[in-house]
TrEMBL record:
<feature type="domain" description="DUF2293">
    <location>
        <begin position="139"/>
        <end position="224"/>
    </location>
</feature>
<protein>
    <recommendedName>
        <fullName>DUF2293 domain-containing protein</fullName>
    </recommendedName>
</protein>
<dbReference type="InterPro" id="IPR018744">
    <property type="entry name" value="DUF2293"/>
</dbReference>
<dbReference type="Pfam" id="PF10056">
    <property type="entry name" value="DUF2293"/>
</dbReference>
Amino acid sequence: MAGSATPLTPGGLVVVQPLRRKRCAGCRRGPLPLLVLEDGVPRCLDCADLGHLVFLPRGDTALTRRAREESALSAVVVRFNRRRGRYERQGLLVEQEALGRAEARCLADAEARRRRRARDARRRAVEDERFAAAFAAEIVRLYPGCPAERARRMAAHASARGSGRVGRSAAGRALSESAVISAVVAAVRHEDTPYDRLLMSGVPRYEARRRIAAAVAGVLREWEEMTGVG
Ligand SMILES: [Zn+2]
């Protein structure tokens, strides 16, 4: 063995990945990829009655825990780290059937999580749709002349999840009048005025807003007065 001390872990069998070439003291087979130390003497897994176990590398915590739970017989696989001067866990030897059951349990969990995510996504979509509809209704209430389709589009845009837009803000969620007006003003600015073109041509934002202010006010006035269409 590379390490002088026997790698002991409390309450469990330990199997070693040897750093140097070792032969089994019982059947003389070797070099051994894995061995068990019995009274300081290396034995192969078959001679140690562990030959039927399969190796599960470390890394998947849930699978490891479950495989150990499912397996009547299991062993921790360790390797000596010369630099650190200690044995380090490489994985687990477990019964084949136990590993299968553990994998099935993990898969069932993953499936349950997937279904829950899908359910949550559907619920959010319904909420978003309701909210956008309420938002659109509020737009039409404040601006009866605004075409219904346009109101729907503005509401959907303002309330898009993850957009950080006014519809997602607290005031927007509460459908405060100022939040709704802000969303409408923003939409009119971009769609009904040369605002975007001004910005692209290097006009500073405040100056661009000043130039289009009359056009925005004109559209809003029209929408406030006219009877809704569409
Ligand atoms: Zn042997």
